[in-house]
Amino acid sequence: MSQFSTSAILIRRTDFGDYDLIVSLFSQAQGKISVIAKSAKKSARRFAGVLELFSELDAVVSAGRGLPVLQEASLKNPFAQIRAVPSRLAYASYWAELIQDWVEEHAAHAELYRLLQHVLSELDRGCVPAGVLSIVFQMRFLRLSGHSPNLEHCVGCRCEMPAIRPDVLGVDVAKGGIACPACAPACDHAQHLSKGTVKQLLWVAGGDLRRAARIKFSPQAIAESLAFLERFVPYHLGRQPRSLKVLRQLRGDER
Ligand SMILES: [Zn+2]
Question: Ion ligand 1 — residues with CB under 5 Å?
Fold first, then answer.
C-alpha cells in the first residue's frame, strides 16, 4: 500500500452507505481522484467540517486495492463564502463539473489546479464579479484542454478579425469561432461578439492569471462572453453540464 500527501480541492461528494462518503478531489499531486472517506458520515469528529464542497485541503491518501482511502484531511482554504451565496455556488459547481467530467483521473495538471484554486479564491473574496471569473476560467480551461475558440479570423473565409467590417462579429459555434457577415450561419443571428469583447477574451486566455482576473469587462461584454462560452464549452466538450441550467435560472437568463 502506498501513501501520499497533497493539496486538493474537493469537487464532489457522494454518500456511500450509511457511514462513508466518496469524495472527488482535484489534487495537485495526482489530478482528479476519487477517494473514500470512511466514517465521515457516522462520526461527527472524523473529518469534522473539513469535507465541504470547494474547500482546499491538505490530504493524506493511501492507495492499495480498491478505492484509495482518505486517511487525513485538514482545511487549507475553507472558501466558505462560496457556499454562502447561491450564485457563487452555482458558478463553482459549473467549473467543478467541467473538471469532473473532462479531466482524466490520476494525471497531475498543475496549471489547471492553479487556475481552479485562483478562481475559487477570488470567488470567495467577492471583489471580482463571478461572471468575469467564469470567463477567465472557461477561456483558460478551453486552452488547456486543446479547444480554444478561434477568435483571430473568420472560421469560413479566414479573413482576419480586424478586417471584418462591422464591429459586431457573428459566431459559428460548430466551426469553432468568429464569423464574418458573409460566413455567419443564419440561425445564429442572435449570437454575436463585439470586437472589443473578442480582444478581451484573447487577453484573458493567456498571460498572467492574477492580471487576467482584474481586467475590467463592461456588463455588455460579460453578458456576450458568457452567452458565447456557455454554448461553446458544452458543444466542444460534447455534453450539456447539468449545473449550467441552475446557473442560468439563478442569473434569470431568458432561455
Ligand atoms: Zn468569412
Answer: 154, 156-157, 180, 183
Tally of CA atoms within 13 A in the half-sphere of 102 that contains its CB? 23
164 Cα: distance to centroid of ligand 1 (angstroms): 8
CA atoms within a 13 Å half-sphere pointing along the CA-CB vector of 227? 21
Per DSSP, the three-state class of 102 is helix
Please give the distance, rounded to the nearest whole angstrom, from the Cα atom of residue 143 to the centre of ligand 1.
23
Asked whether 64 and 2 are in contact (CB, 8 A), the reply is yes
CA of 11 to the centre of ligand 1 (A): 41
**Ligand 1 mean position to 29 CA, how many Å?**
44
* Separation CA 229–CA 209 (nearest Å): 18
- Tens digit of pLDDT for each residue in 40-98? 988 878 898 899 999 999 999 998 888 999 999 999 999 999 999 999 999 999 999 99
Contacts of 150 (CB under 8 A, 6+ apart): 176, 177, 178
Average pLDDT, rounded, for the chain: 93
Q: Are 87 and 94 in contact (CB under 8 A)?
A: no
| Residues paired with 103 in a beta bridge | none
pTM score of the predicted model: 0.94
Distance 157 CA to ligand 1 centre (A): 4
Q: How far is the CA of 155 from the centre of ligand 1 (A)?
A: 6
Nearest Cα to 30, choosing from 1, 3, 66?
3
Per-residue pLDDT tens digits for 101-142: 889 999 999 999 999 999 999 999 999 999 999 999 999 999
Residues with Cβ within 8 Å of residue 101, at least 6 apart in sequence: 237, 239, 241
Q: Of 17-21, 113-117, 133-137, 182-186, which range is least confident?
A: 182-186
